[in-house]
Design goal:
Layout (H helix, E strand, L loop, with lengths): L16 E7 L11 H16 L3 E6 L2 H8 L8 E5 L7 H4 L2 E2 L4 E6 L2 H4 L4 H4 L1 H7 L6 E9 L5 E3 L4 E5 H4 L10 H12 L3 E5 L17 E4 L3 E5 L9 H13 L9 E5 L6 E2 L2 E2 L8 E3 L2 E6 L3 H14 L4 E6 L10 H4 E5 L7
Parallel strand pairs: 1-2, 2-3, 5-6, 8-9, 11-12, 16-17
Antiparallel strand pairs: 1-18, 4-5, 7-8, 10-11, 13-14, 15-16
Length: 344
């Protein structure tokens, strides 16, 4: 297949994938106190991914990880890349890829300079220099953008949140309109849909879209709802729901809305953690769905996501360790689409 340059887009997550990146946890990260537990979770994700497509593992000590996963993971599908890392949140430091194979290397600054990020921000350039990924490198380090802060429908619409992209230490002094124009230009989008409500307690990202609202085929939006008026999220998520109901597609039609349950509160040392069922990962033939040891909520969420992706297997991944560092499955991963070369 070929596509002309004026139809180059950022693919939807459910488009056919070349592979998925995991940036592996190690003892010099914040995972150190429960490294064995998080390693087990990463092996579980690696097993599911490598059974269906390539898995690229970024780690400071690739041989250590190789020995760890041999016998557990389909090794023929695993590509290792060794380089220094600060942390493990591939969704936010990895490339964003266009359908013509352009690998967009945006600046990752630790979610507005909250955390060290210099080594993570250098991973993409290292991957490109060693030709680990198909595609053409494009330096976008003059603009801060995290993969978890945007969603693409694959047809020219980008979803994002005002809470994140307008937060301090991202791209000031750019205005909202200027940021929108940058997103359109760099991501080859026709329009940007801004979500103005929604935030999860314990979230470090200033409200990433992938914790709140996700796009699925056939103009479907999956989103987190809250039914408990006493929950601290109730009013904000109700306002978000009302905004979603008012949205229209590029063709002027309402979106199909699927409401995900709110996970029962999970706390660590008195702090509520951002447990969300919206943070799932779509891969070839399957969806990796975060679970939280809550059988009713877990089952309900998996059924709703299956409704949005009826042609894919639902694979539950216990994410109770991941959320201790304030993320979930989608935050840990980045998919790379199969490339469609553009005509010159």
């Amino acid at each position: 297949m070929t596509m002309t340059t004026d139809t180059v887009r950022m693919p939807a997550e459910w488009a056919p994938q070349w592979g998925v990146q995991l940036t592996w946890p190690h003892a010099d990260t914040d995972w150190a106190p429960y490294l064995a537990d998080i390693t087990g979770t990463y092996i579980e994700m690696a097993r599911a991914i490598a059974a269906r497509e390539r898995l690229i593992i970024v780690a400071p000590d690739a041989e250590r990880v190789r020995l760890m996963i041999e016998g557990e993971v389909e090794m023929d599908n695993v590509v290792f890349h060794e380089c220094p890392t600060d942390d493990t949140w591939a969704r936010d430091h990895a490339f964003l890829t266009l359908s013509d194979g352009t690998l967009l290397d945006f600046r990752f600054n630790g979610w507005g300079m909250k955390f060290a990020a210099e080594r993570d921000n250098a991973i993409n350039r290292s991957l490109a220099e060693h030709h680990r990924l198909p595609g053409t490198y494009s330096d976008q380090n003059d603009f801060v953008l995290e993969g978890g802060s945007i969603e693409s429908d694959g047809r020219g619409t980008i979803f994002t949140t005002t809470g994140c992209l307008l937060a301090p230490n991202r791209n000031q002094p750019l205005t909202k309109q200027q940021i929108e124009e940058e997103l359109k230009r760099r991501l080859r989008a026709n329009r940007v849909v801004w979500i103005d409500h929604g935030h999860l307690a314990g979230d470090d990202t200033d409200g990433h879209i992938d914790t709140l609202v996700r796009i699925a085929p056939h103009d479907t939006l999956l989103y987190i709802g809250c039914d408990d008026p006493d929950d601290e999220h109730y009013d904000d998520l109700k306002a978000m729901e009302q905004q979603l109901e008012s949205l229209r597609t590029a063709e002027g039609k309402p979106y199909r809305l699927l409401r995900l349950p709110m996970a029962d509160a999970i706390s660590d040392d008195g702090e509520r953690l951002p447990a969300t069922y919206a943070n799932f990962l779509v891969i070839n033939g399957a969806v990796l769905v975060p679970t939280y040891g809550q059988s009713d909520n877990d089952s309900k969420a998996m059924g709703i996501i299956a409704n949005a992706f009826p042609d894919r297997e639902m694979i539950g991944i216990d994410s109770r360790t991941i959320i201790r560092q304030h993320g979930s499955i989608h935050c840990c991963t980045m998919q790379y689409p199969l490339l469609i070369k553009s005509e010159e």
